[in-house]
Amino acid sequence: MFTKMQASSCSDMKPKQKDDRSRIGILLGGVTLCICVADYVLAELGSGKAEPAFNRSFLIETAVVIVCMLLPAIFMRLSKNRRALAKKHPKSVSTPPSKIKAKLEEESEKSNNAGRGLAQAVTSAVRLGELSRAERLLHEIITSNTSMDPMPFNAVINAFAKNGDSQSALKWLKQMRSSGIPPNPVSYNILMDAAVKADRAEEAESWLRLMLKDGVAPNEVSFATVIHARAKRGEIVKAERWLSEMLDSGVEPNIVSYNSLIYACGRKGDSAGAEKWITEAEARGLVPRVTTFTAVVDACAKSGDVKRAEKWMQKMAEAQVEPNVVSFSAMIDACAKAGNSERARHWHTQMISQGVQPNVHSFSAVINACAKNGDLLAAFEQFEAMEAAGVTADVVVYSGLLDACAKAGELKHAREIFRCMKANGVMPNVVAYASLARPFAHKGDWQEVERLAAEMGAAGLKMNEYFLYAQLLAYASAKPRQADRAEALFRKAWSQGVQANKHVVTALGRAVGRGKSSQLLAELGISEDDSRRQRAKCY
Fold first, then answer.
1. Are 398 and 426 in contact (CB under 8 A)?
2. Measuring CA to CA, which residue among 491, 485, 501 is closest to residue 444?
3. Quick one: average pLDDT of 82-102?
4. What's the rounded Cα separation, in Å, for the pair 304 and 298?
5. Tens digit of pLDDT for each residue in 296-331?
6. What DSSP line would sit under 465-476, residue for residue?
7. Alpha-carbon dihedral of residues 206, 212, 213, 214, nearest 10 degrees?
8. Longest dimension (CA), the chain
9. Are 410 and 375 in contact, with CB atoms under 8 Å apart?
10. Number of neighbouring beta carbons within 10 Å of residue 130
């Protein structure tokens, strides 16, 4: 419609301009004709009686002068009319449609640039932690006529979600929708991710359900996030349920989802379950990564199945996937749990020969394997190799050495290692104190164990089941047995929330007698079946 109006406005002027030119032409032609006719008539009239030439010339010259005087006046009048018409229709004359379109596009581009500038300002405010300013800028975007996209809304939603403020995150999710911008999968994924990082699996699941309710189709990241939320807790059944829902929704899982399921199996030492999931992933055409193979090896390690772990290390090599230091450390952990220090040293040497740089965890795993095997000399050799490699020992490494000394009954070396640890600025933890106390406990030196307990308390460390076992063992091994001290210690530890696992209950029975132990457990409401389910991590 605009184009038609513009065209008609321009065409209104063209006929008028043509009419003016036609009139001028007719007028001038008429005057010329009149002069010629007059000249002819005068010539004919004077044919009989010759008219003096000067009379004819005078008449012609007079007519020419009159015409010359009229012409400027006519042109001035026409020019004046043209200017008046131009003032009356300035746009129609000066701006063609192509220029108007370009101007509109320029104004639209300016509006878009303003919108992008505000969106970037929101993102910058969020990055600086200025949420109030980010909200203010977002309100400005909403109230202005600038174009909007999900990016600034997602930035603010993500910021509140990371701060644990789910109510504010939900408020902006609703505001986003009411502003005419439908939330996309990213909007919900960032909410789920923040919940998972804060170990709020239930909240992550509620965001996914809201996503489905709002009609937003979840993608593979959405389902992988809630699968990981349950897997990291070791809740394999719930994780599997989400995988089934993922498949029912027509969303093809990626390798990350299977890695989470394998990890969940690994936490429980379920190597068969881990193998099942990696096999299914391969059947779906997914390519296992180094993290996938490592998770399976770790599952085998937790169950102490060295042969099974080595099988998956071999499969990793066949798949041309290079193992990293975490892969080798998991393999060495499997050997350590089985007490096979020879294979642990073999895999550590294999790792170095393949150009993988060892770290403190790989060395501590080898030292732990030697400690479990009671090979004190091999443990010290690995410690020296670690120092030669420029790797700084941590409290786990020193605890492994202390454990090796405990197994070998080397009290003197244990004290030297403990002093060396503190001299190197490594603060001992409760496991280190328990490892140092154990060789004294086996010899019945309860006075030294009590001294270490007091030192540990002065350092601000609370007793756990590791140290409780060592101290009860000291009372049980003492001559004579210290039954009263053992009972008092157990009551105090229980009141402080220390768990009574099967090792603790066994040491208590040795210290106070089976009958008294059963009576004490019943009095405190402790079931022996429950104590058996409380597994110690390492002794």
1. yes
2. 485
3. 55
4. 10
5. 999 999 988 999 999 999 999 999 999 999 999 999
6. HHHHHHHHHHHH
7. 110
8. 178
9. no
10. 15
Q: Counting beta carbons within 10 angstroms of the beta carbon of residue 178, is it exposed (0 to 12), middle (13 to 18) or buried (19 or more)?
A: exposed
Interior angle at CA 430, CA 425 and CA 435, nearest 5: 90
Say how many C-beta atoms besides its own lie within 10 A of residue 99's C-beta: 10
Contact 377, 345 (CB under 8 A): no
Token pair, residue 188, equals 């919900």
Phi first, then psi: give them for residue 273, nearest 5 degrees.
Answer: -65, -40
Measured between alpha carbons, how far is 155 from 192 in angstroms, rounded to an integer?
14
Q: How far is CA 211 from the centre of its chain?
A: 19
pLDDT digits (tens, 9 = 90+) for 393-409: 999 999 999 989 888 88
Average pLDDT over residues 59-84: 62
Decide if pLDDT at 103 tops 80: no
How many H helices and E strands in the chain? 28, 0
Query: How many Cβ atoms sit within 10 Å of the Cβ of residue 532?
Result: 11
Length of the chain: 539
Instruction: Tell which residue, 180, 170, 172, has the closest CA to residue 149.
Output: 180
467-491 burial, b at 16+ Cβ within 10 Å, e below that, comes to: bbbbbbbbbbbbeebbbebbbebbe
Q: How far is CA 191 from the centre of its chain?
A: 11
Judge contact between 352 and 358, C-beta under 8 A.
yes
CA distance 29 to 50: 29
The answer, yes or no, to whether residue 3 has pLDDT greater than 50, is: no
Q: Tokens at residue 518, please?
A: 């059963």
Burial of 292 (0-12, 13-18, 19+ CB in 10 A): buried
Q: How confident is the model at residue 437 (pLDDT cuts 50, 70, 90)?
A: very high
Q: Cα–chain-centroid distance for residue 458?
A: 42
